[in-house]
Write a structure and sequence with these properties.
Elements: E1 2-5, E2 22-24, H1 42-45, E3 58-62, E4 75-77, E5 84-88, E6 99-106, E7 112-118, E8 124-133, E9 142-149, E10 174-181, E11 192-198, E12 213-215, E13 229-236, E14 245-251, E15 254-262, E16 271-280, E17 290-301
Antiparallel strand pairs: 1-2, 1-12, 3-17, 4-7, 5-6, 6-17, 7-16, 8-13, 8-17, 9-10, 9-16, 10-11, 11-12, 13-14, 14-15
Amino acid sequence: MITMNRHLRTFLISVPSCLLTVFALQSQEPAMSGSLPEGEGLAAKAAPGEPLDSHPAVIFVENFERNDFRSRWDETRDAGGRVLSLVPVEPAAPGLGEQCLKVTATLGANTGGGMTKWFEPADRLFVRFYVKFDAGCDYVHHFVTLRANRSLKGQDRWSGFGGAGLKPDGDGRFSTALEPWGNWGRWPAPGRWNFYSYWHEMNAAPDGKFWGNSFKPEEQPDIDKERWICAEFMLQHNTPGKPDGEQAFWIDGQLRGHWKGINWRTSPTLKANALTLESYVTDRWTKNRTNIVFFDELVIAREYIGPSKSAR
């Protein structure tokens, strides 16, 4: 199904809270395809002791085992140094190492935080991360976003950021994010998984503006709290100007949704080349003052990654 979510856009632009709502649009069923793998991927097939970043298909790995992790990212949002911290992995989970990233969003003090990494693009990209929602975590506004920019240099590397309420140009930007969505507070926080996507053929909201289209399965369970979840999503670039792009996502190695026929871009120079890992919280639906999310074992690759062998 495709529906319309209206959210704040992180970084360069925001939307007044009175405009934050969700509109249902014409539904579209996920594509049924046997071309995408499930279960084990390159993470489980790696030799014991072999670092994932040595695999030729891997672009970037962040396991948060190094205290200087900020130096591996290009931009960091950490208000007053009170949002991002490294903590022990709890409960201990083989395959996840000893440390993970804790993101603490505090209503009235900040909107959470996170990091952005620019990288060399590929025709098909996979992003995998482990996440755990704290027992007291309420609804999250934005999460893990893959953005397409005109290039990796200068101002063009920011072309995929901002633009809430505006329809992107086909040669300017597109983005897609794997996020929890609470369905106007109807589903228990943090909600259920969906894609939140911007591109030049997206549908408008009833007010004529463009607040992002949501791709989600017709049925799926609520997101668990207090357990490590392996989340992964894929983006296939389209041939410029043609509707042959795709996106899909997996939870714990299970394919939840696969959508085809997306015309992401009109220019060959526009490519997904920036990833933002964040927990961004506002007071639209979130009522709890403190909202904590944990991340670990992020991988960007050109092949399906799947769960870590010893962490499933």
